[in-house]
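Supplementary notes for students who missed Thursday's class. We covered one full example, reproduced here. Read the sequence, then the structure, then the short commentary at the end.
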Amino acid sequence: MGFKCGIVGLPNVGKSTLFNALTRTAAAQAANFPFCTIEPNVGEVSVPDERLDKIAAIGKSAEIIPTRLSFVDIAGLVKGAAQGEGLGNQFLANIREVDAIAYVLRCFENDDIVHVSGRIDPLADAEVVETELMLSDMESLEKRIGGLEKRIRGQDKDAKVTLDLVNRTLEVLRDGKPARHVEISDDEQKPFKELQLLTSKPALYICNVDEDAAADGNEMTKTVEEYAKAQNARAVIISAEIESELSQLEDDEQAEYLETMGLEEPGLNRIIREGYKLLNLQTYFTVGPKEARAWTVTVGTKAPQAAGVIHTDFERGFIRAQTIAYDDFVELGGEAAAKEAGKARDEGKEYVVKDGDIMLFKFNT
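Structure (token representation):
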């Protein structure tokens, strides 16, 4: 299980350039005019994880298979999208299909690249996109009220819970805040998710800067970081131009190029880390002579469900999971040594998987 992250933003903020760089592909046409991306381009990328290389070396694995995630490059948005302006209806439909939204905000000056609004203001850009999503959510919720009231008259208890959620969410939206600001109990998590609200999705603000600001940001990125905190979201600084250059280099050349830019790692790594935090994700591993492989699960996942990520039969016939903590596996030098040291544990159905666990599942066929 990975996650699908939609890349959105106003036209000409560097959205498609970033997508091309992240996925090392020219699938999205980056051009200096609006709507150069009409159909959503989807690109899969490997999640970099140094731990996987280490356990593969210890396990003498013939193949290394990282977990993957998808980026979706979605058509540029303009004001009025909620009413179908520009490519609004298509944009909103594509947004519904992603797990998280990455807002690309232009945080650089360049007279050669036009801005759809004629000025550089990342917060205003963010608010245009967020407002259109909030308007769409409000319309969606308002349409539900009549049907829910009818069901309540028929003594439908679930409808009463849902209507209460709808009214509380509308109150937040009308106050100019996205739906992720709504306070909900554990019992309300499921019905709230079923509302399929655009602004309830986790948000990551990507500050696209020029090369000079890639390491430390600039005044515009500082305002975005403060804005993100206020929106229950996260922010990351990245230079789409640098990422574009990196995508053209061989792996051994990338480190040298990053050093000249004053950077320790590619922006992709930072986006992935923030995305994982955003969606409450973690990684566990399987390792053997054939392959070492990373698998992604949500924090709090129990062993049978983690096994089900590999194959549904593993979950259905789950018996137990041999589990070795990553640090123990590396420090002791592999599975055999971990067993001898008593660090390989047999865990049952209630075991909650921890980040970095090396797991071997026993199951009935």
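Commentary. The two ends are 22 Å apart (CA to CA). The mean pLDDT is 85. If anything here is unclear, bring it to office hours.
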